[in-house]
Structure formats: structure tokens, C-alpha cells
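Recap quiz, item 2
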Amino acid sequence: MTNNNNQENNEDVCEIFDSHEDVIERVQKRMIEEDQYSQLAEFFKIFGNSTRLKILSLLAIEDLCVCDICDTLNLNQTTVSNQLRILRANNIVKYQKEGKMARYSLTDLHIEMIYKIGLEHILE
Amino acid sequence: MTNNNNQENNEDVCEIFDSHEDVIERVQKRMIEEDQYSQLAEFFKIFGNSTRLKILSLLAIEDLCVCDICDTLNLNQTTVSNQLRILRANNIVKYQKEGKMARYSLTDLHIEMIYKIGLEHILE
DNA sequence: AAAACATATCATAATATTGTGATATGAAAA
DNA sequence: TTTTCATATCACAATATTATGATATGTTTT
């Protein structure tokens, strides 16, 4: 596994077998801030619900109004509006008022990228 | 907005203003399977918890045993083991027994990619 | 103005997820 | 074999999330 030479009971000079303390210190140094982990988790949580994923996948195809989303997905208007609120609050979608309608779209290319990599993953 | 010519009250022949029915039908055709949305949501749900994200970010740096993960993150052993179980069940991490220790690693490059795109996103 | 329509918000019951104490398993050390 | 160590599993209280009915807001039509 490791390409060390021949000595068997060497646990002092070999750099490869470093102590747990060393590992911990080294890895800790490369971590991001506590707050960033939370932000990231909040961001990914958005993708962890199939209703929201469906909405996102539709908006990746084209911009849509709320009622088209409802009808396409055959979902309750309240359900869709609620999820859109969550998506808005997290800056995942934006919308534009057109008369009494609201036309929604994705804010950001990252959203589509993440969706597609995830899809690639589950399709192996 | 749309590059149509000069007529003002044209609502019959112009292909650009299609009815809700047309939009719905067109978009529905490009959707993936119900089951795939669920699978995708399950997959992304994994990233939606900061403890799991922390573990994943450590394993993206180097392979680690459970106790090193606990010590690095200053977390309960049960908590870490539980999250590792979830990660294993979802094929996000794998492990290798080494004596009484278990060395964990990421299964797949997609994991690291998604983590990094997410990080890019929250850093604007 | 009233009616109809598109969307948003509020309140809540049902459900899911989280961290953790208690405990089990299994391997190495004594 | 007993003890110790590393990790896993179980059970569960605390918390978070979901979908949805009821209702509010705001816009167009009549």
C-alpha cells in the first residue's frame, strides 16, 4: 500500500505513519468556517426535496408562471407557492411580475450545474 | 423582448405566444421519471446537513478513521458513526477495515465536484 | 363597483431527521 | 480470558420539514 522499503517495526522516522494528532492538525487547517458549512448545508437542503427539484428542472427548461408549474406537475397551488417562497428566500429562483402573473426563472447557472451533476451521479 | 415585426394585436398566428396547454405539454415531455426525482432528492439530502458536509470535506482532503473524524470535528462518536452509516447507505463514502480501525474515503468524484460548486455558489 | 383570476401567506397536522445515551460487536493487548 | 479500544447499532426525545386548507392580496375583466 505504502511504498516504504524493508524495515518492519519503524514507527519513529517514517513520515508516512504520522500520529493522529498530526493528521487532525493538518486537516483542521484546511477546513472552512463553521458558518460556511451551515450556509452550504442550507443551500444543498434546497435540492433535497423532489417537489423543489421538479420545479427547478422545469425552470431549467424554460421560464414559467406559477399556474403552469402547478398544471405541469399536477400539484396544489399552495404547495408550489410555498416551495417557490423557499426557493426565492434562498436566491435560487427569481421572478418577474407580468400583470397578475409571476414568471419564475433560475437565478444562477450553478443551480443547473449541480442538478445535472447529481443526475449524472444517480444514472451512474 | 421578442423580435416580432410590426403587427400589434396578433394573437393567432404568432408562434411565440403559445397557450398554457402548449407550454405544459412541451415541458412535461422533457421531464425525467418520478422515481428519478426521488432518487435525486435523496442524494442531495445528504449534502443538506452540516455535520455530513464537514465529514465529506475532511474526506475530500484525505482518508480518515472514525476517531480522527470525531477528534477533528470535536463531535460525539455516535453522531459521527450515525452520519457515516447514512453516507455509506447512500454510497457516498466507502471504508476499509484496518485492524480495529475503519478508514473512510469518498466513493466518487461527483461528491467532491458538487461540494465545490456549492461552495463557489455561496461565496458568490 | 363586483366578480374572476393568479399568487402569497398563515396555521397546523403528519412526517422525517437530528444528536445522543445506552449498549453491542469485534479486534488487539495484557 | 479479561480488559481495552474502535466502531456500530438501537431507541428516542427534540426539532425541522412537508403538504395543504383557509384566507389574504393584488390585478384584470365586466
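Residues 37 and 74 of chain B are 35 Å apart (CA to CA).
The first strand of chain B starts at residue 64 and ends at 65.
End of item.
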